[in-house]
Amino acid sequence: MSVTPVRGLQVTTGVTAWCRRRGNVATMNDRAPAPGGLALVEALVNTLLDIRTGEDALDRPEVRARFGIPPGELDAARALRESLRAACLAHAGHPPHREVTPLTDLLATAPLHVRVDPADGAATLAPPDDASLTSRVAAAIAEATTTGTWPRLKACEASDCHWAYYDRSPAARSRWCDMRVCGARAKMRRYRAK
């Protein structure tokens, strides 16, 4: 199990920690988690364990606690997750999986602060100390935008998957969260269609 520190929280990365189930096949994606704060975004998107059945890790109190989701904000966390998934699909060149609230609208309520390092004068956008999940996600996206890593967080093109993954391929053209599972299935379907 991979644990990534994210803004003072220990967030178990969804890609390696939660097992996806497809029929009777259980697999785990072995991609390295996204860098920096994007690990939080990737983990949140991947809390939907099975897009077909709706199995959701956020139904478990211990998972909500890892993300710092208060009981009354579960619906907002799910809306944020699905808007993030739509953005990840867009990064991969795919339309949204369903109608979602625009991510811009959800992040508009997230307070962020400019923090300046007195040692070197470097400035960063950071969430307040008592930050909500939305603020932490907004800060992660802001950081990833400045480093150029945000467009590399994508969602698998398999319609029964749509898991988030960080595309580390040199040309940034990776299409599936796991070549051995989703990629192999897509290639097999194309082969059978010939």
Short account of what is shown:
The chain has 194 residues and is α+β, with helices and mostly antiparallel strands.
Could you explain how this protein is built, in words?
It is a single chain. This protein is α+β, with helices and mostly antiparallel strands and 194 residues long. Helix content is 37%, strand content 17%. A hairpin with a 6-residue loop joins strand 7 (113-116) and strand 8. The model is unreliable at 1-28 (pLDDT under 50).
How far apart lie the N and C ends?
40 Å
Provide mean pLDDT, rounded: 80
Helix/strand order, N-terminal first = EEHEEHEEHHHEEHEEH
Please compute the radius of gyration using only Cα atoms.
17 Å
Number of helices: 7
- Gross morphology is globular
Q: Within the largest sheet, what's the order of strands? A: 1-2
Secondary structure: helix percent: 25-40%
Uncertain parts:
1-28
| Tally of strands | 10
Q: What does the main sheet amount to?
A: 2 strands, antiparallel
Derived structural class:
alpha+beta
What is the beta-strand fraction? 15-25%
